[in-house]
Amino acid sequence: MLLRHTTSEVVERNALTINPAKTCQPIGAMYAALGIHSCLPHSHGSQGCCSYHRSTLTRHYKEPVMAATSSFTEGSSVFGGQANLLTAIENIFAVYEPDIIAIHSTCLSETIGDDLKQITTKAWEDGKVPAGKHLIYAHTPSFTGSHVTGFANMCHGIVDHFAECSAVRGKHIDIFPGWVEPSDMREIKRLAAEMGISIIMTPDTSDVLDAPMTGKHQMYPKGGTTIAELKKVGDAKHALALGDWASTAAATRLDAKCGVPFQVMDLPIGLRATDRFIDQLRRVGDVSVPSSIVDDRGRLLDLMTDMYQYLHGKTVALRGDPDHLLPLAEFLLDLNMVPKYVVSGTPGKKFMERMESMSPATKAQNGPCADMFLMHQWIKNEPVDLLIGNTYGKYIARDEDIPLIRCGFPILDRVGHQYFPLVGYRGAMRLLEKILNAILDRKDRDSTEESFKLVM
Ligand code: SF4
Questions:
Q1: Which atom of ligand 1 sits closest to the CA of residue 107?
Q2: 17, 22, 23, 24: which to mutate for ligand 1, most atoms within 8 A of CB?
Q3: Cα 368 versus chain centre, distance
Q4: Ligand 1 atom 2: the closest Cα is on which residue?
């Protein structure tokens, strides 16, 4: 009983988080920066922050994640980190030769009040940025928001720096994929290609964090959105921002800078959210949906119908990021399952409004005090059949003897998320397979000898 101190009595809290259902902003900024080709993330703060962010991403992706740090000392903590950052910029371009350095702040540099716009402008003015190289930045104070906010802030910084606007609109569509796995980004690109639509995806971590083994270390793998593509995002005829929390900031900035119209949509997780995504892609791309995608949808529907009997009425506790939780809960409802508890550490009023309108019976909470402790207390009062969330849910799963499906960030103790998508119709089939396996394994385990079945 690792969580034996969790009590069933829920006491209202407004100033204490216990086992948060989120992590800190710079991790998101680092992940977004890794989706840009030949970009080195830079953490403006102490070495400890950078180590933690790198190691969490490395453990999740099982790939070495590179990032530099301003390595704050006591002096920089008192007098500000400008000198450290200027030296770092010079050294990084000289030693590691990236095309872009993507700087994000940390709690410490934010508390001091370091202004990244002012410091990066000084770096340009002092000639510390070689010709053809780029500096981008995002303020990512971790005492507010979450890793999703940090991801959104860096995406905003990318668009802000690179997007160029010309009088001629291109034929391509911009897709801001939100915080999804490299496998999901690859699947979104596959769907667009299948529909014959040219897209620019920003950022794109496929072929960066799921790069094949070649026997040769590549500091900057072949994947990632290129500088040439980033400049062209301003000429797109339309933009789709997938995930309100992760992608709205970038799409809004692009619209303000270059007048690219955009729609904010749910991540295409599950049947209905994928339907909306494909339909919108069809409209803005002015194409028809090919039969291969219609067939994928039909296979998903077939599976949902065949397996409905095992899922009906099963209760689920979900924990993670709002952009994932909303379409996930919708998919569970489509499977006639019950999203009983939903918790997200990422703040934002819209989340509760959308959860309430989608599923009034669901007990949901988001923000700083919506943590794993609270979810565990709810489960202690009324248990559920299934948990869905990141690796940290395994403590609740073990203590309460409930199966856990790993989904979200971080997943530190399993593989698969890098390689097999959860988005699109095929992703929904994989998700459904995971749910079914968890429910049926439990049914097998709990069956009496008389009711133990070979054929389901
Ligand atoms: S100090 Fe702030 S930025 Fe650094 S690891 Fe902790 S929460 Fe994240």
A1: 2
A2: 24
A3: 18
A4: 107
Q: Find the farthest-apart pair of alpha carbons in the chain and give their distance in angstroms, rounded.
A: 80
* CA gap 25, 246 in Å, rounded: 12
Contact 199, 225 (CB under 8 A): no
Tokens of 334: 């489509």
User: CA–CA separation, 300 vs 267, rounded Å?
Assistant: 17
Task: Look up residue 234 and give its DSSP letter.
Answer: G
Nearest CA to ligand 1 atom 3: 106
pTM of the model: 0.97
- In SS3 terms, 118-147 reads as HHHHHHHHCCCCCCCCEEEEECCCCCCCCH
- With a 6 Å cutoff on the Cβ, whether 142 touches ligand 1 is yes
Indicate if ligand 1 lies below 6 Å from the C-beta of 420. Answer: no
Nearest to 389 by CA among 433, 339, 442, 456: 339
pLDDT category at 278 given cuts 50, 70, 90 is: very high
Overall average pLDDT of the 15-28 stretch: 95
Predicted confidence at residue 456, as pLDDT, reads 79
Residue 296 C-beta-side C-alpha neighbours within 13 Å: 21
Nearest CA to ligand 1 atom 8: 24
Q: How far apart are the first and last CA of the chain?
A: 33
DSSP, collapsed to helix, strand or coil, labels residue 113 as: coil
- 70 Cβ closer than 6 Å to some ligand 1 atom: no
Closest C-alpha among 60, 147, 65 to residue 417:
60
Going from the C-alpha of 325 to that of each of 1, 28, 213, 351, the distances in angstroms are 28, 17, 33, 9
